[in-house]
Amino acid sequence: MPAPGGGEFQVSHRRDPRPEWDPALYEFTTADQFDVGGSYVSERFVKDGIGAPLVAVGKNQRETYRADFGMSRVYYGITAVGRFDGAGRCEIAFADPLATESVSFNGRTELLAADFTVPLAVMLDRENPEKLELSRLLRPGKYEETARISRLQPFDPDKTVVLCVHGLMDSPATWAPLINTLRADPEIRRRYQFWFYSYPSGYPYPHSAAILRHQLDAVQARFPMKKKMVVIGHSMGGLVSRLLITDSGDRVWDSLFDQPPEAIRMSEETRDLLTDATIFKRRPEVGRVIFIASPHRGSDLATNWVGRIGSSLVRAPEKLAQASVEIGGVLSHDPRSLGLRRLPNSVDTLSPKNRFVRAIDTIPVTDAGVPFHSIIGDRGKGGNPDQTKPLSSDGVVPYWSSHLDGAQSELVVPSGHGAHQHPAAIAEVRRILVEAR
Q: What predicted TM-score, i.e. pTM, was given to this entire model?
């Protein structure tokens, strides 16, 4: 490498003891070669300082990504820093701008340069998680393996996990505006790490919550957490999140069946599936929940003709279809329910007439003793907060369904149903995270 004043530099790389930081595993591109734009990533956040921000993309799919709760292929932002020793040598080291704010040179400390947006944008562009959103709704059984927790960064036991849970016909891509904005804040970077729970949204949400509980068991075995996590759920993701801080007891089961689980004749697989979904305890690792545009008491859109057509298009996975056959004759009668002759799918479990929805609503969220917050969208058309028409609504979920008594805070933002992407909602999430102790 030519030296600025003539001659040559011998360039070397500072070895990192962590195997995943071996430069041979990645292709590197300087971040300033990328332009940023699009519906999910419209604003670019950078930090001036020492070093060259790079995007590291894994050359191959990681074999251990499921066991490690990582992404199948790494997309990560790093900063390359060169140190010259005055003797014709330059040592290159890679720093993690989500973990390191500054670097030292000859007794001086300088801010580390960073580009927080481009790595996220590259991942969205190349992986395109949106492409499966409709398929995972209509054919959830085909995408069973996609129900999993995944990390966006190396696990740090000293940082609080923020677990983001998407809603119906959605994917983790929906969180990009929030993640992009929040990771640009040094206080958030210092204290928090962002993870996702993604799942086929055609599943009835109690089943998705049961899968999440099993995922959390595995996470705790692999990455024991020192601090209780924050869970953020949008729309149906909020309903999944609510079940993490709920002790159901027998209330939900008793709303569906006249007999206890052991007294009903069914296969062990079906019994396990149903009890997992209806009898559960709150998760001790969850310390706070933020609900955004969540239909806790359902949405009439799931009950009207549009919802009924949508429900009819969702194909039940084989194990749920088999469970429907086995319990068809033992479900208790409820004239107020949807009157289904099968297990409900995700659209059905968003109906105000769904028995699970009504049963969960009888269990106060405050019973768990876990602080929670509500962010609610309102289109600005006016309306009433109760069930008197016209309704205050985000266009999908009315205020009366999103509101929960006992919330530590509640903010109504001028937004449609995508309230989690609205700047006011993102600012409120930041406020909650900064003030949380």
A: 0.93
